[in-house]
Amino acid sequence: MNNPSYLSLSSKELESRSERAFSLLSCCNICPRNCRINRIKGERGCCGIGARPTVSSYFPHFGEEKVLTGRHGSGTVFLTGCNLSCVYCQNYEISQMKVGEEFSFEGLAEIMVSLQRKGCCNINFVTPTSQVPAILKSLTFAVKKGLNIPLVYNTNAYDSVETLELLEGIFDIYMPDMKYHGEQEARKYSKISGYPRVAQIAIKEMHRQVGDLKVNREGVAKKGLLVRHLVLPNDLSKTEGVLRFIKEEVSENTFINIMGQYRPFYKAFDHPELSKAITSREHRRYVEFAEQIGLKRVYS
Ligand code: SF4
Ligand code: SF4
Span 43-49, mean pLDDT? Predict the structure, then answer.
């Protein structure tokens, strides 16, 4: 396994990235929600998270895509809070009810190193967007403790380019879940405006930084973009639009996981159109569509 990119940066550069990220917290515009509140002074915006790392759980995860798990699992860190509020969120206790614990920066560094000691092939930060400053600061400690596996940015794609630029050369693997192609659905079911456009720009920036997904001899991801897309029932995620965007504006070699495991959770039952799972026939239709339009690395 090659060394992850962040080991090529000097400690001064890593510290400077962390400081620049922290400077965004005093009038928070870490993500395109642009809450403009002071998280350093303890104010909370839409994501509900302060300035310190806030973690719900961490463990070697074997349920992720095979390219991420390797033999010993993906070192997954479930971060608390989220900048979206999806009515069907499977992890709503973590994302909406903010179940989790605040750690010191050294504490999050120790979590990373402990997952590496267990043999994990990467550190996979779930919903990292609002905690970018905390992750960068913790990374400066983790590198001193010997961290040497790639970082995965496992995001809902509602990310700003300015924040992503701070991650260039630090995160080797970007894994955005491109949730919607339709503005109206994003607003109704995830309480977010402008999602499709923001996500498209963010994913292009991620691809610019890391390119198509590359794997090592064991088939484990070392660098690149891995797009996920959760198919919602009744075509509410407008899947064909998402797939066309990936093919036409990102790359036909994008590794894309078309996920068919939607189940109603949380407040989905308030919306009859979201209250059922998708059928394997519906899912198959989208996988075939992706292949027909020329996407070459479709995973399902
Ligand atoms: S990171 Fe949180 S507080 Fe900052 S802009 Fe986004 S949602 Fe608002
Ligand atoms: S983006 Fe993901 S974690 Fe956040 S609320 Fe939606 S489903 Fe939950």
Answer: 97
Whether ligand 1 lies within 6 angstroms of the CB of 30 is answered as yes
- Identify which of 47, 57, 91 to mutate to test ligand 2's pocket (most ligand atoms within 8 A of the CB): 91
Which amino acid type is present at position 175?
M
**What is residue 1's predicted lDDT score, i.e. its pLDDT?**
54
Domains with residue ranges and CATH for the chain: 5-225 (3.20.20)
Q: Are 87 and 179 in contact (CB under 8 A)?
A: no
Contact 154, 136 (CB under 8 A): no
Predicted TM-score (pTM) of the model is 0.97
* Residues 157/199, Cβ–Cβ less than 8 Å: yes
Cα 11 from Cα 144, distance rounded (Å): 9
**Closest CA relative to residue 52, chosen from 11, 108, 94, 120:** 108
More confident call, 142 vs 3 = 142
CA distance readout (Å), 233 to 199, 291, 292: 21, 21, 21
